[in-house]
Amino acid sequence: MKKIVTIFLLLIAFSDASAQGVIQLSNINSGGLVTLNGKPVGIAWRVSFALPDGTLLGSPGSVSGAGLFSSGPRIIDGITGKVDLSVAAWDSNDPFLKGVSDPFSVTLGNIDNPASLPTNFSGVHIAIPEPGTPSLAALGILASVFNFLYRSNTKVYHANRSSIPFLCP
User: Fold this and answer.
1) Which structural domain range is residue 81 located in?
2) Residue 95's CB: how many other CB atoms inside 10 A?
3) What is the pLDDT of residue 46?
4) 3-31 burial string, b = 16+ CB within 10 Å, else e?
5) Is residue 39 within 8 Å of residue 63, measured between CB atoms?
6) Among residues 37, 38, 79, 42, which one has the least CA distance to residue 58?
7) What is the pLDDT of residue 133?
């Protein structure tokens, strides 16, 4: 009886282990960098694989500098065969600043032969947009209004202050 239970448990373990794919979390040979406004990011950044809907997969890795990351193989549970993935990157100091690469298709490997990023991986490019002309114009008008109100209030104050002789030079 013990042999049957042992064989059954081994079969369950092997069937569960085969329901996972492995891919290298590395852009060393793919050519694509992680950039912020056109400049490679540094070591404070983290990367991970993501599904097209933005769901992060596997454990995150770190950027080693100059926009490069090489964090070894990542096991993706429940996914095997060909899959569409992206690489997500974020600043560990600012979790709101996040970018996602263009999706790519890859056939996941196994632990002995993990898949790697495609050679045409374009990288993760994060751009913070410049403020537009209308917003800068509105800011200038607002500053002018505050300046006018400040100056009109200070004239009244100076007029009242001049009537006190020891405060005026």
Assistant:
1) 2-126
2) 9
3) 92
4) eeeeeeeeeeeeeeeeebbbbbbbbeebe
5) no
6) 79
7) 76
Q: Are 86 and 155 members of one domain?
A: no
Using CA atoms, how far residue 77 sits from 17, 37, 147, 148, in Å, is: 9, 34, 60, 63
Strand order in the sheet with 124-126: 39-40, 34-36, 124-126
The CATH number that applies at residue 103 is 2.60.40
Map tokens 């239970």 to a residue: 5
Is residue 116 located within the same domain as residue 152? no
Answer yes or no: do 120 and 138 share one domain. no
List of the chain residues with pLDDT < 70:
1, 5-19, 152-169
Quick: pLDDT tens for 66-78: 889 988 898 888 8
Dump pLDDT digits (tens) for 17-33: 445 788 888 888 777 88
